[in-house]
Amino acid sequence: MGSNDVVRVGIVGVGIMGADHAERLARRIAGARLVAVADPDEGRARDLAARFEGVRAGADALELIAADDVDAVLLASPGFVHEDQVLACLAADKPVLCEKPLTMDSESSLRLVAADREAEERVGRRLVQVGFMRRFDPEYAGLRTLLESGELGRTLLLHNVHRNASVPNADFRSEMIVRDSLVHEVDVARFLFGEEVVAIQVLSPAPTSHAADGVIDPQVAIFTMAGGGIVTNEVFVNSQVGYEVRCEAVAERGSAVIGRPSSSTYTTALAVDGLGRWGGEVPADYRTRFATAYDLEVQAWVDSVRSGTPVGPTAWDGYAATAVSTAGMASLASGERVDIALADPQTLSHSASSPDTDTSENAPSTKEQP
Ligand SMILES: NC(=O)C1=CN([C@@H]2O[C@H](COP(=O)(O)OP(=O)(O)OC[C@H]3O[C@@H](n4cnc5c(N)ncnc54)[C@H](O)[C@@H]3O)[C@@H](O)[C@H]2O)C=CC1
Ligand SMILES: O=C1[C@@H](O)[C@H](O)[C@@H](O)[C@H](O)[C@H]1O
Q1: Taking CA 75 as the corner, what is the angle to CA 69 and CA 58, rounded to the nearest 5 degrees?
Q2: Ligand 2: residue whose CA is nearest its atom 9
Q3: CA 22 to each of CA 5, 39, 47, 74, 297: distance values in angstroms, whole numbers, following the listed order
Q4: Of 66, 91, 94, nearest to 7 (Cα)?
Q5: Which-ligand-closest: CA of 137?
Q6: Residue 144 falls within a domain, yes or no?
Q7: Helices 183-193 and 138-149: crossing angle, nearest 10°?
Q8: For atom 4 of ligand 2, which residue has the closest CA?
Q9: Can you tell me the ipTM of this complex?
Q10: 25 C-alpha vs ligand 1 centroid, how far in Å?
Q11: Is the distance from the beta carbon of residue 34 to the nearest atom of ligand 1 less than 6 Å?
Q12: Is the distance from the beta carbon of residue 131 to the nearest atom of ligand 1 less than 6 Å?
């Protein structure tokens, strides 16, 4: 693919995120053309394709991935099918932007790290980018630049809040809060500290009455970073209010917060009860809050496909995050702190050694990220 060629993209999975990515690829991303969508719910795929010109729809993901007129694949299917679909992309030597989580557990994610490495040896570039879009969010990117500048001194703590108004259905069990929601905070912690998470403890406060029966919501997770820093995380997926994602970094000479309503959104309003109210709007969900981040993420991916220089979160980042989620699910069950031992990136075998020796890819591959 030359740097002037238009990237022909296929989307696999056209639920909430697949449809959102289709809109951006078809209307806002330069240098790309959406050519095909696939979903076992073929009617849904057809309805989406009909919104654009020249996009075909099918039910078979593997057929789309193998198609000659598809240069690159955006996977927005559920996490439990990511492993097979990413492997199919790698077998076809096609770049793939895989939505988070990379896979459902650390073993399968590690297999993808190895497969991407083999692909790199074959085609000269890694092919997998993982959809941790917060790295592309201007606020998170700005916070990282501030922390890296050293202006505030060494980073000591992060405090994260992650709330969804509600989750789609009763299938969203307690484990999903760790694997699908908290996984973003895992990536944020690695991104902002530039270190691995070495231990996790997940606490189970009394659940809200709005959670499905037996679901532990909210949850509070505590990460220990390789250098001893601590990250506290509240994840609450039935808050009833809206999408709230905040992060405060505490460093030796100051602190910085992102995700607060800015003063430009300050408004007053007369409410139905006749009383004045103040405040900005709380976004309904991630598609609003992170719209710019998704645009920048997908544009960077398309640019990287054209230039041949990969960017963004790697398969290793996906694996490292999944390893923390896997430990987090064990902690959720036991209430105990669980240590995390990442594989040795040199041999790709599990090692008991601490992953904090950052002389290699073992360190979070965040330094060169946007
Ligand atoms: N980066 C972010 O902020 C977000 C990422 N996600 C991730 O995006 C992915 C999709 O999530 P949603 O769109 O919310 O799910 P969804 O449930 O709305 O849509 C999933 C779609 O995949 C289809 N599907 C099921 N099996 C499939 C298969 N074998 N091959 C292809 N398609 C298949 C379903 O029919 C459905 O249309 C997940 O990995 C999720 O974690 C979801 C929400 C936000
Ligand atoms: O990735 C996401 C969803 O899968 C997850 O379910 C939500 O809790 C997150 O806020 C969203 O960003």
Answers
A1: 55
A2: 181
A3: 19, 13, 12, 9, 14
A4: 94
A5: 1
A6: yes
A7: 30
A8: 180
A9: 0.99
A10: 17
A11: no
A12: yes
CB 150, CB 50: distance < 8 Å: no
Q: Does pTM top 0.90 for this prediction? A: yes
CATH number, residue 26: 3.40.50.720
Cβ-proximal residues to 245 (8 Å cutoff; 6+ apart), any chain = 134, 160, 161, 162, 163, 259, 286, 289
CA distance 94 to 89: 5
How far does the centroid of ligand 2 lie from the alpha carbon of residue 164, in Å? 8
Is residue 359 in a domain?
no
Q: Is 320 exposed, middle or buried (0-12, 13-18, 19+ CB in 10 A)?
A: buried
Residue 113 carries which side chain, given as an amino acid letter?
V
Helical axes 16-27 vs 291-307, angle rounded to 10° = 60
120 lies in the same domain as 150: no
Q: Which residue has its alpha carbon closest to ligand 1 atom 29? A: 81
Mutate to test the pocket of ligand 1, among 21, 23, 39 (most ligand atoms within 8 A of CB): 39
Half-sphere exposure of 49 (CA within 13 A, CB side): 22
**pLDDT per residue over 44-101, tens digit each?**
999 999 999 999 999 999 999 999 999 999 999 999 999 999 999 999 999 999 999 9
Angle at 122 between CA 117 and CA 128, to 5 degrees: 45
What residue owns the CA closest to ligand 2's atom 2?
181
The tokens of 24 are what? 């951006």
Q: Do 197 and 219 fall into the same domain?
A: yes
Residue with tokens 């740097």: 3
Mind listing the pLDDT tens digit for each residue in 9-18?
999 999 999 9
